[in-house]
Each structure stands twice: as C-alpha cells, then as structure tokens.
Amino acid sequence: MPELSATALRVPASGIREIVNLALSRGGDVVRLEIGEPHRPPAPHIAEAGAAAARAGTGYTQSAGIPQLRAELAEDLRRRYEVAVSPDRVIVSQGAVQGIAAVLAAVLRPGDEVLVPDPSWPNYEMQTLLFGGVPMRYPLRPDNGFVPDPAEVAALVGPRTRVLVLNSPGNPTGAVTGRPALHRLVEIAARHDVLVISDEVYDEVLFEGEPAALCQLGAPHVVSVFSFSKTYAMTGWRVGYVLAPPWLAPTLARLQEPFLSCISGVSQAAALAALSGPRDGVATAVAEYRRNRDVAVRLLADAGIHPVVPDGAFYLMVPLAPGVDSRRAALDLVGHGVATAPGTAFGDVARAFLRISFAATEAQLVAGLDRLIAWHDKSGGGAVATEGVGR
User: Fold this and answer.
1) Are residues 131 and 105 in contact, defined by beta-carbon separation less than 8 angstroms?
2) What are the angstrom distances between the C-alpha of 103 and each of 219, 273, 342?
3) What distance in Å separates the CA atoms of residue 341 and residue 20, rounded to the nearest whole number?
4) Which of 252, 202, 263 is nearest to 232 (CA)?
5) Which residue in 71, 82, 147, 337 has a CA-CA distance of 20 to 30 Å to 350?
6) Given the DSSP bridges, would you call strands 90-93 and 113-118 parallel, antiparallel or unpaired?
7) Which residues form the Aminotransferase class I/classII large domain (predicted)?
8) Where do you find CATH 3.40.640.10 in the chain?
C-alpha cells in the first residue's frame, strides 16, 4: 500500500472529538456539555425554506455562492456594521471552517508561520499543518482575561510569519477583545505584511463589549470570517462566509471549485431565509445564553470555583487544581456522567482547565454542573481522581 503523506500525518486528532466519541458510546446517561452546539433547532422559517428548496429540487450552484445570498450578506454587513461591501467580496463557504481553509490554502507556502491564539479552536493549527505551515502560539493568559497582549504578539512576528489569526468573541474562552487592542494587532500585522484572519463566528453572541467588526477598518490585509452555525443554530446546515479584500476574493471563489464545487443549494436557501426573515429568535437565544452563563458562574462560585466570566460566545473555562492534566480529568468525568472539553485540546495555556458549553437547557446545565462540582469536590479539582486515568 502507498504511504500516507507526511503532511497528513502531522495533523493531530481533535481532543474535543475524543470526548464526543466517548460520550456517545456511553449513551444517554452522560450530560453533554463538551460540544459547541446550540440545543435549539433553527427557527421554523429557516427549516421550511430548506425543505421547500429540497422539495422543488436543487442542483449545482455558483461555486462562490448564489448571487442572491451573496448580495444579502453584503447588505447584512452594511446594516450591522455600516460598511459598503460589494457582493463580489463575499464568498459562501461550507461553514467557517472551510472558509478559513480556503484562505490558508490561498496564501500559505511551505514553512510559513501562522500565529494562533493559545488557547484556541484546534482547527486553526490542524489546517495550518495540513497546508504545510507552522503554527506559532501566542498566549491568552487567564490573569489577563484570556485576551491577547499586542506586545507579546508583536514579539513573535518573524520573517516567516504569514498569517495572524484573531478570534473575538473567543472559542474556548468566550473572551471579548476590546477594539483598541484588536486595531493595534491589525496595525502590527500591516507593518510586517501579515494577513489577518478575523474569526467572528460568535459576533452576534455577545453579553458585554462590542463585536470585533474589523471589516469597518477597510484594511486590505484583513479577512473576516462568519458563520450561520451559532447565530442561527444551523450547525448541521454547514454555511459560512468570508469577507475578503478585492485582491483575494477572486482566488477564494476559484478555489471553491476544487474544494467542493459549491455549497448545498438547500442550505443556501435556508441561509437566505435566516437573513431575510424574522430575527427575534437570535435575541431570544442570546438572552438564554446569558442566563445560563450567570447560572453556571453562580453555581461554580458557590462551590468555591471561580472561572473568568465570559463576555460572549457560550463557553466557560472551569479551572482545575494546578498541574492537573485536563484530558485525564475529562476522561474521568465522562465516567461520572458529564462530558466536558479538556483544555489540552486548545493549546498549552489552559491545560488545567475544562471548557463547558452552556448552550444547553438550564436543566441540562444544572445537572451537568452538579456532577462536575461533586467530582471537583471529591477529587480536589482533579488532583486525585485523574491519577492513572488515560495512561
């Protein structure tokens, strides 16, 4: 048999998926707080638009997305951020993940470095490795609210640095980086001819602070990436979009053909309905996430556990005892009836943290946290229970 490519072998497995697979194998006795997925289905008008498109029959579409959707996305960005955007700069992608992949494929050369947050969504590093790049982590420290220090990022920029990834609100931390710091980071990137990928998937899931809105800068070296998954509870529909500068957009549109030919016409019809139909469901969901955040923070604080309170997204980083391997803790917790994502899945800085998602019903959240707190109390924050687990 032919050998696997060295590039493919460099891509690690997801530490989140390890827990997902284990939780699924245990069946319904595990409260699942490990995955970043809204528990509510999409609004009825969204689902019906997709169903209607399926019933009518749909075939191949334009590789960069149907013109109606691209135009509506440009208009939506104008409404929300007061920027004039040509639809030609909007590329519809198979979720934000494929949009980011297309950008990296367009600009990375073998050995190029990509600055990624630590902790961060693991797919940044996985995709960088897949396209022959070198991930370089910049720290998001808990004592700094999990937001980047521009000076630390600037110190990591070198002659091979090609891309800087920013993410606000952040996954896994829910941290919202202030615009002055974001604009400083964009200036640093411009000075070194570095492309900025601004992952703004959670831009409408905000409790405090402002969205990154880097498209307002009009900077030619900034790419903004968005998704329908979190805002409209459309994770399974797989629709995202990239707002690219004019020099990059045509290449991204061309790359969509070898990547996937086109996005599902059914999913694009649903996405168009999400933009043009009632939006009250978005505000309702964000209000529910805020309530769940406050419930989670209160329950943990009452148990003597004090996480950094997130300002956006729907994640909470739960601290363990110093030095605890969170992968072992997460594996052990599944046996205690609750699934969480280990901090080791997101880098080095949060190795002694667990990420929980509070995009759940309040009953599910409370039940899962009760099990987590009981385990935390009994194990000394994981110091005892994880000995020997996962070896």
Assistant:
1) yes
2) 16, 27, 28
3) 9
4) 202
5) 337
6) unpaired
7) 29-370
8) 59-276
Query: Per the omega criterion (within 30 degrees of 0), is the bond before 172 cis?
Result: yes
Mean pLDDT, the chain, rounded, equals: 96
Pairing of strands 161-167, 195-199: parallel
Cβ neighbours around 351 below 10 Å, total: 18
Give the residue-averaged pLDDT of 105-133. Answer: 97
- Do residues 15 and 348 lie in contact, with contact meaning Cβ atoms separated by under 8 Å? no
Structure tokens at 37: 């997925």
* Other CB atoms within 10 Å distance of the CB of residue 126: 17
Give the number of other Cβ atoms within 10 Å of residue 209's Cβ.
Answer: 15
Mean pLDDT over 172-201 rounds to 98
List pLDDT tens digits, range 121-140: 999 999 999 999 999 999 99
Q: In the numeric block, which tokens belong to residue 140? A: 């998001």
C-beta separation of 43 from 279 below 8 A: no
CB 385 within 8 A of CB 327: no
pTM above 0.85, yes or no: yes
Q: What's the per-residue H, E or C state across 258-320?
A: HHHCCCCHHHHHHHHHHHHCCCHHHHHHHHHHHHHHHHHHHHHHHCCCCCCCCCECCEEEEEC
- 137 near 124, Cβ under 8 Å? no
Single out the residue of 333, 259, 327, 225 nearest to residue 17, CA to CA: 327
pLDDT tens readout for residues 20-79: 999 999 878 999 999 999 999 999 999 999 999 999 999 999 999 999 999 999 999 999
User: Which CATH number, 3.30.450.40, 1.20.120.30, 2.40.50.100, 3.90.1150.10, labels domain 6-41+280-379?
Assistant: 3.90.1150.10
The distance from CA 390 to its chain's CA centroid, rounded to whole angstroms, is: 26
Fold of 59-276: Aspartate Aminotransferase; domain 2 (3.40.640)
